[in-house]
Amino acid sequence: xxxxxxxxxxxxxxxxxxxxxxxxxxxxxxxxxxxxxxxxxxxxxxxxxxxxxxxxxxxxxxxxxxxxxxxxxxxxxxxxxxxxxxxxxxxxxxxxxxxxxxxxxxxxxxxxxxxxxxxxxxxxxxxxxxxxxxxxxxxxxxxxxxxxxxxxxxxxxxxxxxxxxxxxxxxxxxxxxxxxxxxxxxxxxxxxxxxxxxxxxxxxxxxxxxxxxxxxxxxxxxxxxxxxxxxxxxxxxxxxxxxxxxxxxxxxxxxxxxxxxxxxxxxxxxxxxxxxxxxxxxxxxxxxxxxxxxxxxxxxxxxxxxxxxxxxxxxxxxxxxxxxxxxxxxxxxxxxxxxxxxxxxxxxxxxxxxxxxxxxxxxxxxxx
Length: 368
What we know:
The chain is of the alpha/beta class. The chain has helices at 18-25, 29-39, 93-98, 228-233, 287-298, 322-328, and strands spanning 108-109, 124-126, 135-137, 168-172, 177-182, 185-187, 190-193, 195-200, 240-244, 273-276, 301-306, 311-312, 336-339. It is built from six helices and 13 strands.
């Protein structure tokens, strides 16, 4: 909920007459006596209550183009890019953390070098001329039933036929439209998937309330992936997608869908937002790890799917340094807290956030 403008009192009118000016320069004997009493502590000077200033809205984030395209990964005012570092702690933070094994778990990067097919979620960039094919969905009623630009060049999580989540994320660079499918597979020449969704990367529009996507939370996957190119550049400008094993049968904005196994609000719902506490130390860590930690402090983690607790997702890229992966694995889950992002909401059906005009982005630190 956006904060309203604070009230102000009318300015005091100045008197310019010589008699009034003389009174200001020469206090009366009574006034002098009262001042003396105040100075020795017998009276307390009354100070008028100044109007409480309205805190400024958080600044908008940035949205650097996706490599290989001129497309933003959603607008700069999207919740994905919001700075949540100053938002209030969610009232259920401690309860949610207790049901996510936060006291005994550490973060787990769900990506990294593995030789052969890299570990993580890949994405494919295609031209507008790429052929589009019909897809048959298991959950057709909540999928976008349009042709998808899938083909032999499409990168699939884990590889085709791997039996995992087999997400396929494809960006049409000419239209800046994102296509995502889950459980993506082929049967002969036909394409099949569990579910599918598309987004205009220039738009803040959310999916229909109650609809899934290629993710349990009904959100896009691509904007929540940690990418090596942005870590290398020293600036991760968005929240990061992560999972937990047991969630409530509910969802919070900006999520649109739930896939919970319990009806208990002390368990986290889809769309729950978490941030790394500001005091978490970065002493002795690599510059690239610090870049990721800063993103977790400023933009946070968003609960987007069910899976192993505190697994967070990144792109499939063999360039991920072992040192960064190792350092990220040492961050304790107990160093996080849930935050309430509801004050950023402009509309229940939009990912747009309340914010001030974007300020110039400083030149990112590029580690040597």
